[in-house]
Amino acid sequence: MPHLVDDSPVGQRRQLGAAMRSFRKEAGIDRDEAAELIEATGPTLTRKERGESKFKRQEIEVLARAYDIGRDDLVMLLELAREVRAGTRRGEFPMFVPLKSRAFLELERAEAVEVLAVTLTLVPLYFQTEAYMRELWLRSGDLLAPERIEELVALRKARQQVLAKRNPPTIRAVVHELALRLPVGGPTVMQEQLLHLAAACDLPNVEIQVQPISAGAYPGMDAAFYLLRFRNGPAADIVQVHGHAESFYRDRETATEPYRVAWDRRKVAALDLRASKALILEAATRFEVATGS
């Protein structure tokens, strides 16, 4: 029998599997118990959840009932599975944003080996302090209730745990100097934030570079994104692009390539690691002066 090559988009397969794994964890069902429901072995389900093989429609429907997945999420899962099977190129449609957001967070937490972060006016989310986060959501213009803000803070703090997990991904960030100068929350909040950011520079799995204002225009100056990288090469890269009100996602190699190029150009144009940390500490000192400390 000839060897059958699975030529469906690896990014879509990986996201579908990650979303299914996330729903399973949320439902509190272990791998082997879930595998029995679809008459498979635990390792087989693991391969499906890693995107190494495809989920069948019937398997998704059976597991959706066990995981108590809502109708809207089930529709997205089935449509994405259909596109994976067909090898079509429609997987970036807006209807998939909630599902891909779930998958992105699961992949970031469980499978990514490297994260490339580019930010413009904000400190990268992995290094934000609680006070800084609260101020961002308080001033977002969305008139969020205090309870919702605290919920968002808790979710982001949970996302930051990726820094301290066993075998964490390498996080490489290029931050524009504007993020160091913008007084989010005032001098006290910013001084705390910048000292926290400077401390993160010393973590063994973190590299932070600053793009200085003095350099003027620079490559990719209109892009802010987070790019996840995996062990099986750039074909599996997934990009979360930050827009005004929501994020969108890129998961095809041709669609993620411009972000890899943008990252490389930004990295070369930014200050080196030592100079970047020095600039962060200098900005923190200016806020210290402003507070009168």
UniProtKB/TrEMBL annotation:
Q: Which InterPro entries match?
A: Cro/C1-type_HTH, DUF5753, Lambda_DNA-bd_dom_sf
Record's protein name = HTH cro/C1-type domain-containing protein
PROSITE patterns given for it?
A: HTH_CROC1 (PS50943)
CDD domains tied to this protein: HTH_XRE
User: Taking every annotated instance into account, which residue ranges of this chain make up the domain HTH cro/C1-type?
Assistant: 20-74
What is the native source organism of this protein? Saccharothrix yanglingensis
Q: Which Gene3D superfamilies match?
A: lambda repressor-like DNA-binding domains
Query: Which Pfam families does the record cross-reference, listed alphabetically?
Result: DUF5753, HTH_31
Give the superkingdom in one word. Bacteria
